[in-house]
Amino acid sequence: MDILAVLVLYKMNLEDSPTYQSLLTSVKAGNSQFSSLKLIIYDNSPNPQVSIKDIPVETIYVHDSDNGGLVAAYNYALCEAQNKEWMLLLDQDTILPQNFISNIIKNDNFTSMDESIVAIVPKVRCNKLVVSPAQVAFAGRMKSIANYIGKHNQPITAINSGALIKTSFMQEIGGFNKVFKLDFLDHWLFHKIYSLGRTVYVSESVLEHELSVSNFEKSITPERYENILLAEWHFYQLYKSKLEVGIYIIRNAIRAIYRFAVVKDKKISLVLIRHFFNVIQSCFILEQRK
What we know:
Elements (H helix, E strand, L loop, with lengths): L1 E8 L8 H12 L6 E8 L14 E6 L5 H12 L5 E5 L3 E2 L4 H12 L5 E10 L2 E4 L1 E3 L5 E3 L5 E3 L3 E2 L6 E3 H6 L12 H11 L3 E11 L6 H4 L2 H18 L2 H21 L3 H24 L1
Protein name: Glycosyl transferase family 2
GO molecular function, one term: glycosyltransferase activity
Pathway: Cell wall biogenesis; cell wall polysaccharide biosynthesis
């Protein structure tokens, strides 16, 4: 089973990355069954790593001081994955279980017989709750499928980190969408998979991952939150119905009031309020042009 893994770093030393350390442990544990792994370390930090050595797999290190985000890293990896069957997407702060590689091999035995499956995703846990994958309901609502294992025919979405994506599928659709530099790239990817009649296999593997949105006051700056909201709005504009966009606007109004009431840092709330009025203005301008 040929896999190209791409690990994206930002302002973190490789040796300090939980993803890197747990990946090596998993590779060693599954080595007797594992044919080959190529690793791309794509570093979006302002300064390059001081040294990278003693990596037991074939490795390419790329430093991108312009910080092209996840999409630049993934598209670079796609170009390097011409002879690889799968791409493994990894953030820097994910903890992979020791049996992760072994489960990938076992899952491949099932998925190789079903050409409709173009992604294998693990369960991702944050603060003891399984947050990914989730079934996509109307107007962007998410339904937990924490206990599900196997091929999922109804649309789901999942976190990028830990996801295996068929290289041939990504080549077929022309790579990762540059509209989504960082945020909502995962939503776009899984929307694309199901819109083209393909499916996703949910693995039994459980990863630990820290989501920045899980703690607004500690993890998110106003600038970062603004980027998340902008990506979310782009996604709704491009892929949701008018009714769903309307519900999204109402939900944002409620969300702004809630954030203002419970979040101590009012700068975050003000970002959401400003975003709400920008969305209203954008919708008004679009209607005027018709």
